[in-house]
Amino acid sequence: MTHFANFAAFAAVAIGMALTPGPNMAYLVSRSICQGRAAGLVSLGGVVLGFIVYVLFAAFGITALIFAIPYAYDALRVAGAAYLAYLAWRALKPGGASPFQLRELAPDSPRRLFAMGLLTSLLNPKTAALYLSLLPQFIDRASGDILAQTLTLGALQIAISVGFNTTFVCWPLERSPPSWRDGRCGRGCNAG
What we know:
Layout: H1 4-19, H2 23-35, H3 37-59, H4 62-68, H5 70-92, H6 110-122, H7 125-134, H8 146-175
Helix pairs in contact: 1-8, 2-3, 2-6, 2-8, 3-6, 3-7, 3-8, 4-5
């Protein structure tokens, strides 16, 4: 089993990663402000499923396989870049609105919120780096049962992430102006 020192050190890394702004945090906070706490929590469900996928990939060596095969890694990178390019195109296309322009957005369905949370998590390079580069550093091969250690550390990271991200989902609404808290994506949603 994982030594306490490795467990504590990985917990510190997971906390640092959870507190570092990235695509998951931006998506969760924006959905919470735009559509309310429930939408943020549904989105968080998708993000968590992405974490679970990465934990299982890491535990069963699939992540290493993806990065060992250059074409698989390139496909993952291209998919992430294509997604970012799509978001940029939506903002910059002729007739497209500035991403900073205040506008009313149609609410997304729970299914779309969950799917976008999952996609954001799976294409998040910070998450891939955590499981490919960092997690293996905390596995004690001499302690045996590498699978159990990987799953334990992955569960720890997920628990920490869920704790902090739940706070990020709920906090903006508690601290936002009353006009933002009615569940509509109104004037304040994209104000910065």
